[in-house]
Amino acid sequence: MSTAKKAANLTVRADLLEEARARKINLSQTLETALAAELKKQREAEWLEQNKAAIEAYNRHVEKHGLFSDRYRTFMRED
User: How far apart are CA 50 and CA 44, in angstroms?
Assistant: First the structure.
């Protein structure tokens, strides 16, 4: 997926910047990758929080009634 790029001014610790440049690390790509990972993590946490009640209700239902597929399993579950 290709999206438009936009310039951003950042401040970075000087020692990290110097070492990254010495190692020819692509700063823009590294930041994009790190931001994408952090945003994904935050979206997942928000989704879990927004759906917490439904997840808990489903877990209670499974605890009480089991899974629909339990009767079709050909192996036994050991707890």
Answer: 10
Report d(CA 38, CA 40) in Å as an integer.
5
What distance in Å separates the CA atoms of residue 8 and residue 1, rounded to the nearest whole number? 20
CA nearest 4: which of 32, 26, 35, 41? 32
pLDDT band (50, 70, 90) for residue 71: confident
Tracing tokens 């997942």 back to the chain, one arrives at: 44
Task: Give the span between the Cα atoms of 79 and 76, in whole angstroms.
Answer: 10
Q: What is the pLDDT of residues 28-39, one digit of tens each?
A: 999 999 999 999
Q: Please give the model's pTM, rounded to 2 decimal places.
A: 0.71
d(CA 65, CA 36): 39
**Dmax of the chain from CA atoms?**
62
